[in-house]
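Late entry, evening session. Most of the bench is empty. Finally got around to the prediction I had been postponing all week. Sequence below, unchanged from the version circulated by S.P.
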Amino acid sequence: DDEGSQFDAKGNLNDWWTADDKKKFEERTACIRDQYGDYVAVDDVKLNGKLTLGENTADNGGLRIAYMALMNTLAGKEPAPKDGFTAQQRFFLGFANIWCGQRTDAFTRMLATIDPHSPGRWRVNGTLSNMPEFRDAFQCKPNAAMVRQNACRVW
């Protein structure tokens, strides 16, 4: 997320990054901040990309690491599809499924102003649209809605 640099290896509040590290991190996370800041939570209320930056950064980095773990586990072997989906496709479908939910517009509007978590729809679409692995797993065309032309990547 966007707060890890504030704590050293022993968990003490100690900013251990160099000025250059911090600058490069902020440059990379600006992409995520701007991406999510363009998403509409409800009606005319957009997400606050700065407020949700830590969680969005964590989602993007965490899913990438989890996908790498899957690929390491598969070790180049391709298991048979299940229910018509490859292992890679099931990975992404599983991620999307955990964020399914319903909220009223009023609740969504309120959360957009105070919650550091993006709504489930954008946690899924924002993260997956940044992953070329998703595009490849579902053979998305380059101009598909779930393919960002300027995909964000922090880690």
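Two things to note before I forget:
The chain has a mean pLDDT of 95.
The two ends are 10 Å apart (CA to CA).
Will write this up properly tomorrow.
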